[in-house]
Specification:
Layout (H helix, E strand, L loop, with lengths): L11 H12 L1 H17 L4 E5 L2 E5 L3 E7 L4 E5 L22 E5 L7 H23 L14
Antiparallel strand pairs: 1-2, 2-3, 3-4, 4-5
Helix pairs in contact: 1-2, 2-3
Amino acid sequence: MKKSVAIETRSAPERISERVAELGGWRGKALGRMRKLIQQADPDVVEEWKWDIPVWSHDGILCTGETYKDKVKLTFAKGASLKDPARLFNASLDGNMRRAIDIHEGVTVDGAAFKALIRQAIAFNSAGKLKTSKPSKSSKPSKKAKS
């Protein structure tokens, strides 16, 4: 007998809201607050549900929101390429690509600095998208000399 596969009908934003609610306590509040800050920084952010976690994207992944027993972890896909003057990144600091912010109970992340980091990640993603969409030099028509 084949097992039936349940078709997921909930949208990603609904699933994220459910995750925040089911976490409850300080982890739910922290993830909910960071979600609101992301939405404030980018009203056009796309909320996705991948790898059983919330993912926020704009021209590519901005960050993911993982939850653990002792922390909420926001991992920026291209965090190593971002400037972090407020020193929000406190985890995954040795990698070539990612950087993360681990939020522990009782810790409040600077909202303005976090929104600036989100906007910087958007700019980085958008710049990369523009670079890949420009025609290459070899595809430009050659200029013929006038006779």
